[in-house]
Target: Oxidoreductase
Amino acid sequence: MQYSAYYVEENDGVFSASISRLELEKPADGFVQIKVSHSSLNYKDALSASGNKGVTRNYPFVPGIDAAGTITDANSSQFSEGDEVIVTGYDMGMNTPGGFGEFINVPATWVVKKPNNLTHLESMSIGTAGLTAAASVFKIHESAMESDLPVLVSGATGGVGSIGVMLMSKLGKEVSALTGKSSSVDFLKSIGATNIILRDEYLEAPAKAMERPLFSSAIDTVGGKILSKMLAQISPHGVVACCGNVAGIEVNTTVFPFILRGISLCGIDSAESPLDFKTSIWEKFANEWKLDLSTSTKIIAKQNLQQEIDLILQGGQEGRVVISHEE
Ligand SMILES: NC(=O)c1ccc[n+]([C@@H]2O[C@H](COP(=O)([O-])OP(=O)(O)OC[C@H]3O[C@@H](n4cnc5c(N)ncnc54)[C@H](OP(=O)(O)O)[C@@H]3O)[C@@H](O)[C@H]2O)c1
Model:
């Protein structure tokens, strides 16, 4: 049997993608085969699709770090045919073919049973971006001291950022959204941001070692100069959840925010989080953290992926992109 997939090939160092028919293999011992109904587009997928060897070592390859669907062949006692499931992260979409194909074969240890009150589409509107935003919210709730100052979210219109804004707002926090898109002010307000800060204005003045505290905590999806600057603006015993690097991998700071204000810089790695942690986040998204992502999610066919990949690489996406394999 064959299946259809967004297939990236390398020829003489040039990467190109096509919708191809591939041979479906039986799942190995301990693996399950899933008919994918929906996947989603994350920044890492765009890197894999464009030949970034730090993400995907060998091509040809089918990207897609997120998948939701139904088990069609279970070579593991943990699952049965017909189970509705979600897979995010681990090696899927990096070096194990992922959700941009209509079928995946993955270890059962990567698979979460989909909560009943989330559809496949809803779960992929959340996807790895949502798990990352949720893990950041957990870090902040676990360790940050209460403060009336707003929470700052950078890269606020992006996948992780927009869900971070929504979650913080749902939890009753005032949210300052830092964005490069002046045209997205209404969007950011509609998802719960109370104050919009434009990136160019934020970066106008160079970062100082210590500044007046403006934010209680922060979710930083971009790194670089923005992360460097916000560290000096967090109020005592606040937390900065560091999860992304679209603006750069370097951070310039001093020890002052840490030793004079006791702030914490916490790393987030949602892909490799233990399955129990992912399961508990999916339960939250299905219940008390349920979000309406319908107006911030674009649903596309895999034939239209290339333009969305180009847009995410340019920092131009607003909200989430879900790939539907349903005809
Ligand atoms: N640690 C983890 O577990 C984990 C998991 C998922 C994602 N990530 C990382 O998180 C980051 C965001 O991922 P995503 O899927 O949300 O991507 P995304 O949808 O493209 O969002 C990134 C957003 O960052 C802003 N941005 C883009 N280029 C920028 C630049 N040069 N300087 C400053 N801001 C810029 C843009 O928002 P505005 O225009 O609103 O500023 C953009 O929409 C990526 O680095 C990704 O690798 C990490």
Summary: The two ends are 18 Å apart (CA to CA).
